[in-house]
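>> received
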Amino acid sequence: MVNAAIDNQSPEHVVIIGGGFGGLYAAQALGRASVQVTLIDKRNFHLFQPLLYQVATGGLSPGDIASPLRAVLKRQKNTQVLMGEVIDINPQDRLIKLQDGNTIEYDTLIVATGVSHHYFGNDQWAEKAPGLKTIEDALEMRRRILSAFEVAEKEADSDQRRAWLTFVIVGGGPTGVELAGALAELAHSTLKQDFRHIDTAETKIILLEGMDRVLPPYPPQLSAEAQAELEHLGVQVQTKTLVTNIDEDQVTIKSGDRTEQITAKTILWAAGMKASPIGEVMAKVTEATCDRAGRVIVNPDLTVPGHTNIFVIGDLANFPHQYDDGKPLPGVAPVAMQEGQYVANLIQKRLKGETLPQFHYTDYGSLAVIGRNAAVVNLGFVKFSGFLAWLTWIFVHIFFLIEFDNKIIVMVQWAWGYFTRNRGTRLITNPEE
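>> returned
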């Protein structure tokens, strides 16, 4: 058993599984509480996932958007960080089991392990169409994108060259839209003078969305403006279009009664999500109910039904209590941040014999960037797009980066890229054998 105790005088040991937005914000909010905190993650860093697409398209390096968890929490004397993967939970004995065989006791457990890609029952597509959830995913996307141009430069056959210069992105949510916009700028601007035998401006980027518009959670007006900006960048947007099959270099799509095949060497996945495997573990050991994506349906105070000392937060949680129609809260970073802070506050209240009203998410708005000087922002009371929205997007993302040096580095990188139209991390670092 791992000795997770820090201060034997503290009666409460809070174990947090997952160092994403929910878990990290909970740990930080407990930094001065009279509890022991153990944060466990299979990685030793917190990843700012909203900017992963920038790594995938050569705009930023992985280290620019990742922060070592130990460094972030080093000033919290009541907190320790453990690197490990949790594979089982024993609610009766209040134990969690790590993959290496160690066990850790807890008084209160916070589970915030997030989600991964969802291929809707077609997991065989994963190798052909990588998603974007981890640094490894981003580097693999970057490898495929940049390698496609390199192969096209040497390809003599015109049909094969067109296939290498065709990119299909599946999913028109924020990730797909931002990825498509960044890829268009990379092909049509950054790389324009880099090659001698291909014209990268001829690159075809196709964005597929099953709903009737891109950015479905946004107001229709902003969705229309986002699509217009994408098309201005040269992206072909196809809505009401479903992917029925993905082969090595071909995507089969269906739109209404029409079926079509697109020849493309690079296919990128930005659609759907499924809960981490811990969701299944939670359902098994606590008899909690999970939704179709595997997310745990939680109580109004984010606890698991029947277990007042186990919380599930972030993307792993299905919170259906805020809206009259039972629609769960969206899987976005602000939700996870607020849930982490709420749970930390509730734990401290409980130690004093007090409680809190049920969790309520305050939606300060949503925003997505399309490209240079182009973004859409929905603040509820006002909606806008264009240059001001783009500046707002930049400010918000820099503000929420965890470490100060990351804020400075990203700000300088973006400023340099804006004036030079350059993306400085166009490295193929993990070529296939």
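>> The mean pLDDT is 93.
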